Amino acid sequence: MPEEDHLSATQALARAEVLDGLVRRRARWYARYLLIMGAMAFVSTFAIGLFPGPAGAAVSAVLACAVAGCLVVYALRQPVNRRGLAVHHGVVHGLWVILYLIVLTLGLNRFGGSLAWWLLGAFVVALPHLIGGLLEARR
Amino acid sequence: MSHPRHQIDDVIHSPVRFAVMATLAAADKAEFAYVRDTVEVTDSTLSKQVATLENAGYVQVTKGYVGKRPRTWLSLTKEGRAAFAAHCAALRAIADSVPTL
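ok -> structure tokens follow
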């Protein structure tokens, strides 16, 4: 009996590990989500500096809405969210909003004509999603 | 009553229910069809086992729509997560003990 207990416990734990791995692999969609979001954050922020005035704001807003809309649909269609995704998502998007507001405020008030500022700013704004996406891909 | 065998949760101990709990333990939430395919059971088998887990307070079932398609989501409750962790700890204790011949 103890032998049977030992064997079935070992088998159950091995099965749990296999299932954990399957869920993790299927939940990797979130890495793609974050990397695309990071690319969108970079391009939409840089567009504001590249096309000063209403044109830049319009390009940035249209791009952001289109990509974010597609990503929401993509996320809703996924069959599994890995454990802890909601917290991770909140932290990444919170950081993104804070950095975006800082880069936008300083850029519009102090560095309006500086492409270098907008390039650097766009990179900084994209960092939360890019780092989050890379960490997610390595999980 | 000190043997870890006594810490085994009878609700989770069934192979299908254990697999469902293990799948959900790695997820915030998972779609019914995904769990069915991962655990490799039929719709009706999974429904019955999920009902048992739901009655025990271990699994939460949420129904909704994505577009026009109905979806059923499964997730572990806080009690379910704690029960599964305790069950796995008991299994580990059994697995780590040297079987006596």
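DSSP finds five helices and one strand in chain A.
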